[in-house]
TrEMBL record, chain A:
Gene: atpE
Entry's transmembrane regions: 6-30, 51-73
UniProt-annotated location(s): Cell membrane
Keywords annotated in UniProt: ATP synthesis, Cell membrane, CF(0), Hydrogen ion transport, Ion transport, Lipid-binding, Membrane, Transmembrane, Transmembrane helix, Transport
Its biological purpose: F(1)F(0) ATP synthase produces ATP from ADP in the presence of a proton or sodium gradient. F-type ATPases consist of two structural domains, F(1) containing the extramembraneous catalytic core and F(0) containing the membrane proton channel, linked together by a central stalk and a peripheral stalk. During catalysis, ATP synthesis in the catalytic domain of F(1) is coupled via a rotary mechanism of the central stalk subunits to proton translocation.
Annotated protein name in UniProt: ATP synthase subunit c
Similarity-based family: Belongs to the ATPase C chain family.
Domain V-ATPase proteolipid subunit C-like: 9-71
Entry-linked PROSITE patterns: ATPASE_C (PS00605)
Membrane topology: Multi-pass membrane protein
One Pfam family cited in the UniProt record for this chain: ATP-synt_C
HAMAP family referenced in this protein's UniProt entry, alphabetically: ATP_synth_c_bact
Species for this entry: Roseateles toxinivorans
NCBIfam families hit by this protein: ATP_synt_c, PRK06876.1
GO molecular function: lipid binding; proton-transporting ATP synthase activity, rotational mechanism
């Protein structure tokens, strides 16, 4: 039972902390893009392409973490290890 | 027939997350396991993608194009612009630009399988499985190949192999090995182990992150679709039940619309990183 409660806490922390990092990162990048678009509107479209690319990269670690956390939350590999322990 | 209960929420999700496999994996990394559903859907969608582009290519006119040809031209033009901006070697672009187009179209189609209703293809498969005489409880079918780590890591390993090929082709085997040991810190023999370690870490980190980014996005998206489906499955003629049903439709629509952005973006990011990594193989440090 302890393993299950720790895994639930871990899944929550992984998703939450990852979200903090990703959101702050996207916020900083988005604000820089808006400043640049305001200074040089003719570069807006080109920079928008690059901005979406960067958004995909910034979200990467967070979503990898979310994938792992959801995997632990549903098909928990630690339970299989406990079941295989010698009695 | 013995009385059966419907699946619980946990059982439903675990059923939908199980692959159609030849055997159960004995550890986290088990190379004797084959996911037949991922293999089938990736090959099918690859053929469909090739067929669609072929349809546009065989009737391509240099006069006024039709709508379909114009759409394909927009796509090819976009990929070509990106390739020209990143890979500066025109000879390499003859392979790399079509490779980038293939990667983009294929991954977009594979990701788009996530937009189908969660139970549609699995239930059809289950019925077919039962008619063929097998036990329908073991009729697993996962329809999104890019939500399978094997498929995404396979794609990124393919990109790594193309990078290694171009490293050797552009710099020569001796030149590349020299670069492995002398970049990025310097050519003094004391630094050789650190240079080599950094280069290996760089290759491994790029490949792993390339594959896992796509996997994480698609796996999380698929799981959220399943959770929304559970909301819909829990409806009943009570206040909570009706609220869940209405919430299911709203949440499902919102998430599906957002997911359309995500699947296109992830295919685009994968393609751009393919171009960037192959372009890096052309640069000398």
């Amino acid at each position: 039972m302890e393993v299950i409660s720790f895994v639930a806490l871990a899944a929550g922390l992984i998703i939450g902390l990852g979200a903090v990092g990703a959101c702050i990162g996207i916020g900083i990048m988005g604000s820089k893009y808006l400043e640049a678009a305001a200074r040089q509107p003719e570069l807006m479209n080109e920079l928008q392409t690059k901005m979406f690319l960067l958004a995909g990269l910034i979200d990467a670690a967070f979503i990898i973490g979310t994938g792992i956390a959801l995997w632990f939350a549903t098909a928990n590999p630690f339970l299989a290890q406990i079941a295989n322990l010698p009695k | 027939m013995a009385a059966e209960h419907g699946p619980t929420a946990g059982e439903y999700i675990v059923h939908h997350l199980t692959h159609l496999q030849n055997q159960k994996p004995k550890s986290v990394m088990d190379f004797s396991v084959f996911n037949y559903d991922s293999i089938f859907w990736s090959i099918t969608l690859g053929v469909v993608g090739c067929w669609l582009l072929w349809l546009a290519a065989r009737k391509a006119t240099s006069g006024v194009p039709g709508r379909f040809q114009a759409a394909v031209e927009v796509l090819v033009d976009m990929v070509d612009t990106q390739a020209k901006g990143i890979v500066h070697n025109a000879e390499s672009r003859k392979l790399v630009a079509p490779l980038a187009l293939t990667v983009f179209v294929w991954i977009l189609l594979l990701n788009a399988m996530d937009l189908l209703p969660v139970d549609l293809l699995p239930v059809i498969f289950e019925k077919a499985y039962a008619i063929a005489g097998h036990d329908p409880h073991h009729a697993y079918m996962r329809v999104v190949p890019t939500a399978d780590l094997s498929v995404t890591m396979g794609l990124s390993l393919g990109v790594l192999l193309v990078c290694l090929f171009y490293n050797v082709k552009i710099k020569g085997l001796g030149g590349w090995i020299h670069e492995l040991f002398t970049a990025p810190f310097g050519s003094h023999p004391v630094l050789w182990p650190f240079n080599f370690l950094m280069q290996i870490i760089e290759f491994v980190a790029k490949t792993v992150s390339h594959g896992m980014r796509l996997f994480g996005n698609m796996y999380a998206g698929e799981l959220i679709f399943m959770l929304i489906t559970l909301m819909g499955g829990a409806w009943s003629l009570s206040a909570t039940g009706i609220a869940l049903a209405v919430g299911h439709i709203i949440a499902g629509s919102a998430w599906a619309i957002f997911h359309i952005l995500i699947i296109t973006l992830q295919a685009f990011v994968f393609m751009m990183l393919t171009l960037v990594y192959i372009g890096q193989a052309h640069d000398a440090h």
